[in-house]
Structure of C-type lectin domain-containing protein:
Amino acid sequence: MAFVFLVMLFAWAAKQDSRFPCFVAANVPSSRTVYYLHTTPAHWTAANSTCTRYGGHLVRAKDGDKLKADLKTLDWHGAFNNLTKDVWTGLYRLEGGRFMWSGCENYTWPGLNPPPTFPPYCYSMDKTYHLKPLDCTEKLPYICQIEEGQCWFLPAEDYKFKDEVKGNRSSADLNACARLCRNYIDPTSECWGFSEESNECVLYNSSARHIYLNEMVKYLDVVASSTVYLKICAGGETTTMNPVPSAARVKPEPENCTQPHKGEAWQEEGVCYCDCDQPPVILTAEYLSLSTDDKINKIVEELLVDASNTSASFRKLNSIDDKRPSAQSLGALGIGVICVVFGGLILLDLNRLISHISSVFCKEETPTSNESTQPREAEINL
């Protein structure tokens, strides 16, 4: 009994002491996060303003493993690994010593407090996902993030979960199974994949984010005519978009945080399940930063149809080679009918045509009466 009391007392003391970080599991499933890698360098304030301009904020690198798992799923064509500098994150320190994440979220990590004499500064992140203090006037690439909608499921055909990977079975169809996987979470794990086996839905959980997608060789076997569905809660694009021009202000200033941060957004609506391998559309940062009127004009421009570029117009001006035997036979028959019809018309009028041609040539060769009398008159006059 005394041992249990000591354990409870130690746990209570750990919660009260900031030197003992307490990582509490999320009470809602993951939502979808979209990351935009801006490769055009900017100082911290300009980078933060650029993210805010299209509804995002500088990346919150609160959990290096989570961020690494997310970025590993993105198709950035090596742009992140090819960077020669660190990238800005949303962590910054105010002059009073208070730490904040961009987007009005308090800094909660212990162990990274700077020396008291250090001036206000911002945090960058290297390619190993470690944070480093840096002068905010430095110009670095940066990552913006937006919490946008729900996760989606990638069908991985000809794959099957290995036998040692245990799952939870349930009686449900694909749509219901996707909703179960989207909604399932417990204090230690979350559903990151499911499959349909013997008319049963099998959910596969893990405490590691995107574990089955990032380590397919370790957890999946290649099996023909089998399909597993992997949950993806990340998306991303790269952009060379110019940062928002900012004034001489380069030091972070307190944000107007009128509402407390509520964490990741999560929607109660059902999953829009689609048996396809195409992810949800990710709008570009350039488009998101446009004004409402400019967005409307772009949508109208996309909806306009050029009549000269339609399939009907194209078919009028172009013929298609049809190699089917039936089509070729019909074509030959049509040519034969046309030849017979027009050939018959020519044959019916052939005699008249010949006589007409003969009369034309005969008239040209026969001299006129005036021409035949002119020499005789000339002889008489002589």
